[in-house]
Design brief:
6-stranded mixed sheet
């Protein structure tokens, strides 16, 4: 490319044609030879005549200028002009390697980097250079292809939530050495990492190197910690500079379950400082909702720190069987538990009945043997909903009859009467030590101190389930800690006291670690590798380079020590990891991470991402040339006097060509019909029926709903419009509160799309009245062709459990008081959604306290449409029964229809009458 005056030209030799423009001007300005004058008498006959077509003897200067501009535009356009041409080394020849650091540090300005890379690919494509990519965060052998092939794959590059390391740098060096000469464009994230200088040397040995790097400082967050009653947060930056404020956002779910910003704090970087501290003082309830902290305006994994159990202080209720004696604090049954839990948990004291409404995470019972029925029932319900009950043995438990013959629901195992004492003055044996924890135990991997000894314990009775419930045992095989699951919760029993009376375990650090493994307490600091020894952590969510979380899928678990010590990478992705009930966050930045800015040698040219994109203008110039030539044609026709005739002929041709387009066309009116259908259906309330394809049945359905609509109009405040027949395949159902569906044996089964609309209709509050119309010959079920067809049609529908319409259902009293629901037939087999199993009848009321929902389906076979059907004159179309009895049956059918529509429109509002006794009682007070 040749650059002239700031404009590049891909074919500059074509500009030589501009030199011919003056010659062309002279040729066009040349005047024809003067005519020879000859006298001819007959010319007198031509005097007074006017020639409609005149030819100028000289071309006007402005027309010549127009033609010169058109020719110049063609020449310039063919020369390939380009605005903002790049004169850098990307215009060289030979292969071009584009290197990406590809780490989280460049995620915030990733889009700017993509634009800069796209501009380089455009230049490489014009120069005919092959291009390869090398991502330092995920190095792979470079493959050189055309720039156009890479352009389509550019959006597939995404930053990794880790930085390149020495091993990946060594891979990049080996890849570079295996390729012949190439130039390098290195897009840096601004942070230094091990092996970068070796990679630079390998690239310089192959060709020129040019670096693109933003001047913005890299910001990050260290993991949040809980200290002195507040969340401590530290922000760091790669390079010092002027004083700067950053806003830290605490994000989580509000009480409604919506993701929102729960709190913010401002951290200030002092001048030349690379770290800034701030704190958030939040109540424990709000702190427990926090899922992540991030820096406002930053979009990277490094600027995000995930929250785990380290910020959530669990609520633990402590209840003892006896109060501590004044002055003997060390003998208190709860003293050692309080010392272990107080730094990291919110402790609650009180009775069981007072504590249960607070819904703590854990309840600890120290030497409490017998529970009252109300306490046992309340504790059982609390455990079933996910609570953890931890019990400690003691003299009272040992002397009681709890869980002796039959296993107590609030105990994990059956117990023997009394207890066992070893190593005391009255025993021959020595104190017992703890056996190593099994791999299936939550305590697996914990180191057992030699000074932990057990002198007394409550023994468990042998049982087939005992072995699987033991999670800690003594060296002689007797259980020390047992556990069982109950619904969503757990019950744990320490077979020793919570004091130092029966063992030295409460005096050791192992006691605190065991409580942590049981998720009773939450460590406010990051655990060390020894505490996680022997544990396996499964990833629940992993974080990408932009700081967004996604489901971990089938990623394998990682050992506990690796979770803390292994560097981030494909096998140790940052995110949330779980082990049992514990959750631990692995963040990109650790507490001791330091961001080191990259320093490039002076010989390496460094540019920013703001590279102006090249703008080819050849198309614009050629388009301008065409417009100028068209203007020349019009001007020439005008000067010759032939413009008007040409215009008339052109107008005639255009009129003949465009005339068919103006004629009425037969087009599909699906969208217009759909709009009209929606407008008609929503203008007024209308009842609808499903068109079965059987003309007789569809006409009867239309007449029946017309008769029911008239009845509603005259008897209630509902004023329906004319009924509407709907096609399940094409029509929208959401406009209609009630859908009457007559069943015929030969009607086709709807498509899957129609069933999707039907299910959406049922879930959004609509009601379908299925009518098999065969109650005179069959009961509800598959005893008739219509019944079997109903089962086939209803199988894909999301229909809840059904029951025969009970006598206290709200359908029996929404408008009329009914106990029978006849149509043309009088069967009582009408089915509705089953009432909840806990629906109870209130004393003094004739019906149960049902939920406020509307039954989505009503199924019967009484042919209600036939009983409702009226002709245009208003007379009934179908005879019902005989004499007065038949008319009474028709009247009840209309009343059932009125109740049905009112039930859909108002819901179970009449069920609120169950509150009448309470209201009357309150008014009486």
């Amino acid at each position: 490319m040749t650059v002239l005056g700031g404009i590049g030209f891909t074919a500059p030799w074509l500009l030589m044609a501009l030199l011919a423009l003056p010659i062309l001007w002279l040729i066009l300005r040349a005047v024809p030879p003067a005519p020879i004058r000859r006298r001819f008498p007959g010319v007198a006959l031509l005097l007074g005549l006017k020639d409609d077509e005149s030819v100028s003897d000289r071309t006007p200067w402005w027309l010549l200028l127009l033609r010169m501009l058109a020719v110049a535009a063609i020449i310039l356009g063919l020369a390939g002009p380009v605005l903002n041409p790049n004169e850098g080394q990307a215009q060289g020849s030979g292969p071009l390697l584009i290197v990406l650091d590809g780490s989280w540090a460049g995620a915030t300005r990733w889009s700017e980097q993509e634009d800069a890379i796209a501009a380089q690919l455009t230049r490489a494509s014009r120069a005919g250079r092959t291009v390869a990519f090398l991502d330092m965060a995920r190095p792979q052998a470079p493959v050189f292809q055309t720039a156009d092939a890479w352009r389509s794959r550019l959006p597939g590059f995404r930053p990794a939530p880790w930085q390149p390391d020495a091993a990946r740098s060594a891979q990049a060096v080996s890849f570079a050495e295996a390729v012949d000469g190439f130039d390098t464009l290195w897009f840096s994230d601004g942070l230094d990492y091990p092996g970068r200088e070796d990679v630079l040397a390998a690239f310089e040995a192959k060709g020129a190197v040019e670096v693109y790097q933003t001047a913005a400082n890299v910001l990050a967050l260290r993991p949040a910690g809980f200290e002195d009653g507040a969340v401590q947060i530290t922000a760091v930056r790669a390079a010092g500079g002027p004083e700067r404020e950053v806003i830290v956002q605490a994000q989580g779910r509000d009480p409604a379950g919506n993701a929102s910003i729960l709190a913010t704090a401002t951290a200030v970087f002092e001048e030349d400082a690379t770290s800034a501290d701030t704190a958030l003082s939040l109540p424990s309830e709000l702190r427990a909702r926090i899922t992540r902290f991030d820096l406002q305006g930053q979009r990277s994994a490094g600027a995000t720190t995930l929250a785990d159990d380290g910020l959530r202080r669990r609520e633990v209720a402590l209840i003892a069987g006896r109060e501590s004696r004044e002055g003997l604090q060390l003998l208190s049954p709860l003293h050692y538990i309080e010392q272990a839990l107080a730094p990291n948990a919110d402790l609650i004291r009180g009775s069981i009945t007072d504590i249960l409404p607070a819904n703590p995470d854990v309840i600890i019972l120290a030497d409490i043997a017998t529970l009252s029925p109300s306490e046992a029932e309340g504790l059982g319900a609390w455990v079933d909903e996910g609570g953890m009950l931890v019990r400690f043995a003691g003299p009272r438990v040992a002397a009681s009859d709890v869980s002796r013959i039959d296993e107590d629901p609030m105990m994990p195992v059956r117990l023997r009467t009394g207890g066992r004492t070893v190593g005391g003055a009255m025993s021959w044996g020595a104190p017992k030590a703890l056996a190593p924890f099994r791999e299936t135990s939550p305590f697996f991997g914990l180191a057992i101190p030699d000074d932990v000894q057990i002198t007394s314990q409550v023994m468990a009775q042998p049982d087939p389930t005992l072995a699987e419930r033991v999670i800690a045992e003594l060296t002689d095989g007797t259980p020390l800690v047992t556990r069982k699951s109950r619904e969503q919760g757990q019950i744990v029993l320490f077979h020793i006291t919570a004091t130092a009376d029966w063992s030295t375990l409460p005096l050791s650090g192992l006691f605190v670690q065991m409580l942590e493994r049981l998720a009773i307490s939450t460590s406010a600091s990051q655990p060390d590798a020894s505490q996680l020894e022997g544990t396996t952590w499964t990833p629940e969510q992993v974080m990408d380079g932009f700081g967004s979380l996604r489901d971990a899928g089938n990623l394998p678990g990682v050992p506990g020590p690796d979770l803390l010590n292994a560097p981030p990478g494909p096998n140790m992705q940052p995110g949330i990891y779980a082990s049992g009930d514990r959750r631990l966050a692995r963040n990109v930045i650790t507490a001791d991470s330091v961001l080191t800015p990259v320093t490039w040698p002076a010989r390496i040219p460094i540019k920013g991402f703001a590279v102006p994109p090249e703008q080819p203008v050849a198309g614009w110039l050629l388009s301008l040339a065409i417009l100028l030539l068209l203007a020349d044609v019009v001007a020439s026709l005008s000067l010759s006097g032939r413009l008007l005739g040409k215009v008339n002929r052109a107008a005639t041709v255009a009129l003949v060509t465009l005339l068919p387009l103006g004629l009425p066309q037969h087009v599909k009116a699906q969208s217009t019909d759909a709009d009209a259908f929606a407008l008609n259906a929503t203008a007024e309330l209308a009842l609808a029926f499903v068109m079965t394809g059987n003309t007789r049945v569809d006409d009867m359905s239309d007449a029946g709903l017309r008769g029911l609509s008239d009845t509603l109009f005259f008897r209630t405040s509902v004023e329906p419009a004319e009924p509407v027949g709907v096609d399940l395949e094409t029509d929208e159902l959401a406009f209609f509160p009630v859908l009457y569906w007559p069943i015929t044996p030969d009607q086709p089964r709807p498509s899957s799309e129609a069933y999707a609309r039907l299910n959406a209709y049922l879930r959004s509050g609509g009601l379908i009245l299925f009518d098999t119309r065969d109650a005179d010959i069959a009961r509800f079920g598959a005893a008739s062709p219509n019944g079997r067809k109903l089962q086939d049609l209803a199988a894909p529908l999301d229909i809840p459990p059904l029951e025969p319409l009970p006598s206290d259902h709200v359908l029996t009293r929404t408008f009329y008081l009914l106990q029978d629901f006849p149509g043309r037939h009088t069967s009582r087999d009408v089915w509705v959604e089953a009432a909840p199993p806990d629906a109870e009848q209130v004393e003094g009321m004739p019906f149960r306290n049902l939920n406020d929902g509307v039954t989505p389906v009503v199924i019967g076979g009484n042919d209600w449409a036939a009983a409702w059907a009226v002709a245009a004159s208003g007379a009934p179309m179908v005879p019902i029964g005989r004499g007065f009895t038949g008319e009474r049956q028709r009247e009840l059918a209309f009343r059932f229809g009125v109740n049905l529509v009112m039930h859909v429109l108002t819901g179970n509002y009449k069920s609120d009458q169950v509150h009448v006794p309470a209201l009357l009682d309150r008014l009486g007070q």
